[in-house]
Structures are given as structure tokens and as C-alpha cells.
Amino acid sequence: MGAEHTADDHDHGKGKAHGSGDGHNHDDLISRILGPRAEVIFAVLAGVFLLIGWLGPKFGLGEPIAFGALLAAYFFGGYYALREALGSVFQGRFQIDFLMLVAATGAAILGEWAEGAFLLFLFAIGHALENFAMTRARNAITALADLAPDEALVRRGTETLTVPIDQLVIGDIVVVRSNERLPADGFVVRGESAVNQAPITGESAPVDKQPVSDTALAAASPDSVSADSRVFAGSINGTGSLDIQVTQLAGETTLARVVQMVSEAETRQSPTQSFTKKFERIFVPSVIVLAVLVALSFIVLDETPSESFYRAMAVLVAASPCALAIATPSAILSGVARAARGGVLIKGGAPLESLGKLDAIAFDKTGTLTEGEPRLTDIQPYGGVTEEELLRVSAAVETLSDHPLAQAVVRDAADRLPSIPDTASGFGSITGRGVKAEFEGQTVHIGKAALFSEVPGLPLPDDLRASVARLSENGRTTMIVRQGDSYLGAIGLMDTPREASKPVIAKLRELGIKRMMMISGDNQNVADAVAREVGLDTAFGDLMPDDKVTKIKALSSEQGVAMVGDGVNDAPAMANATVGIAMGAAGSDVALETADIALMADDLETLPFAVGLSRATSRIIRQNLWASLGIVAFLIPATLLGLRIGPAVLIHEGSTLIVVFNALRLLAYRDPA
User: Fold this and answer.
1) For residues 647 and 584, what is the distance between their CA atoms, to the nearest angstrom?
2) Would you say the C-alpha torsion 559, 564, 565, 566 has a positive or negative sign?
3) The pLDDT of residue 154 is above 60
4) What is the pLDDT of residues 4-43, one digit of tens each?
5) pTM for the whole thing?
6) Sheet containing 242-246: which strands, arranged edge to edge?
7) Sequential DSSP letters for 498-519
8) What HEC string does 350-415 produce?
9) Per residue, what are the HEC states of 627-648?
10) Of 56, 404, 569, 651, which one has the fewest beta carbons inside 10 Å?
11) Is there a catalytic annotation at residue 547?
12) H or E element: which one contains 533?
């Protein structure tokens, strides 16, 4: 393929689409006249003139006209190859274009004009088709940018104006009618509707949206706006009409950032790409040496110099690792594009390929496997007290507290009681132990077991202590309730697992993930309880942030591990994992920046899709590598034994198209579930 043929060489310009009008940077007069299909048109013309020059004499066409047709075929077939070859040679690189031109020139010197024209025609048509396929993969990425509308209906003062989205400013009120695409990131200030966020987050069902309760507070801290009020550019409104306050400029929306990062991902090489580049640096000079030796073989073989030279040209064509160079980039590009359409941002070939090979995943607990907020899970009355009475007293006292656990008790009690009394008073906090308050003429204490050995009154009964211990062993945060000298019982709270956690873990096992574990700052009992409930193998609890990093480093050094978290609190641990995966990235700039892979929705349901796609990508990369190396392994001895240039080019270009179209299958990948 020349001295060093890279993926970028093959694409003829990083991020450019071959055959799209800018892939070769074709800014000459011919390309300006013929447009983006200039290369295809030239390839077709080369074929037409080849047929005239080859078949013409058989139908009575004069030799001069036939020869002129073959010269025209050389021109149209070799025009773009010559432009590329000259540009590469001036940069000190020898690519497949150069080798093909040398072979075609050699054929002409030997008088094999038709064969040389056939070579250039096949090369031109092969390149045009290959670049069409690669452009299709790139278009799947650039199509993301088209999700947002070009204009927005804005209410400014008493006027309603239609303005380009790049003229929107933060604080504008955008009016989105039913079934329209949202033009900007923001939050709902008026109206209710179900919004289809699948283009951004990959969520399968529309999400109900409602106005924020405090517009000024939401504007001051847009990142804290709840999911049921927050919206993203590129989403599709349902049947209702929404007024949305803009929080991001057009170039800074979640959609814009995703498009930018996915485009940048193409330039980040995977381990296989790095390997193939190293392989080419050794292989290509070896092929050139072999071609020189073959050209000189007439010295020792019973053949003419022209026959040896012809065979050397055929070897150059046969051994060019064109398919090898494009095998991995085409698969990576297609995989990244498909992931983006499914609400998963993958930042390049390295994390995509690495995730496809890993068999271990570590999860953060809070907010990843669990809901991220405590729920009232257990109510255990004591000594003849009813559940309702225990809950009524607990909620009455906890209404006076702003502690998250107290708020959880009040919130969940409101769903179970007709009403919550508001007559508690004299609230006081006993730091690290619990609280006390006056209710219905008696002092109520609520807290840990240790509290009741410190405050006056009857000690904690042994049977109630044992009951509380069992709750704690099952991962519950416990609160014991005593009113006066009477123990009313205990309540248990837990950050409950997400509904999707257990089925997601099961899907990951089906995909071949063998070890799944949790790392958590919660106590070991809580971590173990959640791990058992969702089906994990191991739980590591009582870990400080530094401990999480140490644990992930150890797991990564063993055989590699992916770390799944929120991308914010878990950023240090994720940075030390083989692959860092962040959830809820659509609502977090930090997660978008820190993660190798970002699940745009705030749930785990797209994780099996990402793992399955990564595994499919790895399989296709392996298939492409074997196919491309196998073809080269066949063609080199075949040309040495007499295979002519024409069939060699046909097989060579065919193998390149096979690996590219094989990679394009990833664009149609579907979640096995």
C-alpha cells in the first residue's frame, strides 16, 4: 500500500468522505463542474472507453480509434489516482494509488494497454463504491446534527418571532407546538406534553413533561431541574404545546456536544488500528523488496525481463494491504454511529473495542443500580401497636426534620395514611443518634439502637433489638421509635434498586459478562443486600472515594474492568477503569466529559445494547482482519505463480468492498432483547 498506509490515508483526509466531493479535497475545475459524483462519473467513463478499446477491433473499429479509447480509459481511470499519488509522494508516502499507477504504467510499457486500463477501471470503480459506503457510515453521524430544526418560534415580550436557532439566547421562551422537534435545551415553563427523547437518550417511551414550580430557581441552576421538566434539542414533542426557557446556546446543546464528540471519536484509534499500522510499517517495505526481487528473477529463471517485470507489478497489486487498512476504521465508524443513534455516546475505537472484550463490570450503587433516594421498606410494630400507629407517630415527628431519611419517612407515610398530624413540637436533634420531639403529651425518641442506652427511660428490649439487627443485616437503615416509656417498633429504609437493574444484569450475563460487582461507600450489609437483590456476584462496601480508585485499579490490572457510575462522584474511579461508563449524561456536562462511554438516559437499560454492539463490532473487526489478510496470503503466491494483474485487482478491490460492507452491517444492529 506504500510505505505507510493508514486509515486516514485510505480515507484521504481525516473525517472526509471519499466520493462526497470533499473526501479527496477535489477542488479542481473538473470536480467543480461535475460535483460530488465526479469520481463515480470518471470511473464509469473509464469502463465505457475500456469496452470500446477492447471490443472495438472485433467489430471493425480501426486500431487508432481503439487505441485512443484505451488512452481515454487510462485518463479517466487514473485521473484521481494520479492526483492522490502525487500528493502522497510529495509528502514522502507511497500509497495504493501510486502502486496501481506503477502497475498500469508497467502494463502499458509491455504493450498490455487493455489490461492496464482494466486495472485502473477496477481500481477507480472500487474506490468510488468503497467511499460511497464509508460516506454512508459518516452520514449516520452527521445526520444527528439534523435532528434539531433550523428555526425556532420565540416569544419576546408581546411579539412572537421566528428566528434561526443560532440567534437564540439564554432566557428566550421558545414555543413548541405538537409533533414539532425541540430547537433548544431548556426547561418547561408552560404546558404539558409527552416528549419523545429517543434521538438523544435512547429511551423507548415518551417522557411526560410539566412546568417547573419556580422559574427563577430553575434558571439560576438549570442542572438541578428535574427530568420531568428538562428537555433537549432534537427531541420530538407529543400532542401538547410547550413553552420552553432556553438554557444553552445552539452550539452548546447536548445534541451539539454529542455530534462533536462522536465526530472526534473517529480520530481516536483502537488497539487493533494501532497494531495494523505497526504491521504495515514492516509488511509494506517487505513487499517492495519482494517486488524488486521478482523483477530481477529473469536472471535465474528461464523467462524474459518483461515477464519478470509484469509479475513484479502483479505482486505489488496483490500484496497491497488496502482491505487491512480499512477493515478496522470502517467497523469502528459504523459502531460509533449506530451507538449514537441508540442514545449511547462512545468516544472512539479504543473504548468500543475494549468493552467488546471485557468480561467484568463494576457498578456504583447509589443512583446507578438504585434509585438514589431512600424508600420506606419495612414497618415492624412492637408490643401490640398497629402499623398505622407506628407510622403516624414517626411521620408526625419527622415532619419537623429536614434530614433526607426523615423526608423519606414523611413522603412514603403520606401514601399510606389518611393524614399526617402536625401537632408535634419541641423538636431536637441528637447528633449522630436520632431525634426527639413532643407529641400528644409524651416525648418521642426516634433513632439508632445506641440512642436508647444514652437517653433516660426503659432500655431497648432484646427481642426488638434482634428484630432491628435482622433488618440491618438485610441492608436496611433502621429507626427505632419510643413514645414515653413504650416502644412502638422499628421502621426500615433502603435505597431501593431500580426496576431495570435485575433484568439488565441478567441480559449482561447472556451477553457473556462473567463477573459483575458493586463498589459502594455504604456499609457492607447494605451493599450485600442490594447485590443479592439485583443478581451481582460480589459487593465491596465501606469504600471511601480513594478506596474505590484503589479497588478499580486492582481490578483493571488483573484482566480489565468497566466501571458504571454517574460520571460525577465516580469520575476518579471511572478514569482508572479500563472503560468508564456514565449514566444520565444527557443531563450532565461532567459525565459527557469524563466518561469513555456515556449512556445518555438516566437508566441502565441501554447498557446491554452498548455491550452487545461492542461485541458485534469486535466480531466484525476479527472477520475483516481474517478476510483481508487471507486475501493477501492467497494473492501473493497466486501472482508469483502467474495470476495476471486484472484478476488480482478484481479480487483485491472486491476484498476491500467486502470488509467495508461487512462493517456497514453494524448500522443495522439491533438489541438482542
Assistant:
1) 53
2) positive
3) yes
4) 333 344 333 333 333 333 344 455 677 677 766 788 888 8
5) 0.69
6) 159-164, 151-156, 173-176, 242-246, 186-190, 230-231
7) PTTHHHHHHHHHHTT--EEEEE
8) HHHHHHHHCCEEEEEHHHHHEEEEEEEEEEEECCCCCHHHHHHHHHHHHCCCCCHHHHHHHHHHHC
9) HHHHHHHHHHHHHHCCCCHHHH
10) 404
11) no
12) helix 524-534
CB atoms within 10 A of CB 292: 13
Residue position matching grid coordinates 466480531: 619
Per DSSP, the residues of 229-290 read TEE-TT-B--SS-EEEEE-S-GGGSHHHHHHHHHHHHTTSPPHHHHHHHHHHHHHHHHHHHH
- Closest among 124, 246, 138 to 185, alpha carbons compared: 246
- Given a contact cutoff of 8 angstroms between Cβ atoms, the answer to whether 230 and 195 are in contact is no
CA distance 619 to 544: 38
The whole-number pLDDT of residue 143 equals: 66
DSSP strand pairing (442-447 vs 425-430): unpaired
Q: What are 214's three cell numbers?
A: 419556580
User: Which one is catalytic: 11, 97, 364, 528?
Assistant: 364
Looking at the chain, the whole-number percentage of residues with pLDDT higher than 70 is 85
Q: What average pLDDT does this structure show over 406-422? A: 90
* Interval 69-94: pLDDT, tens: 999 998 988 888 788 777 766 766 65
Mean pLDDT computed over every residue of the chain = 82
Residue type, 297: S
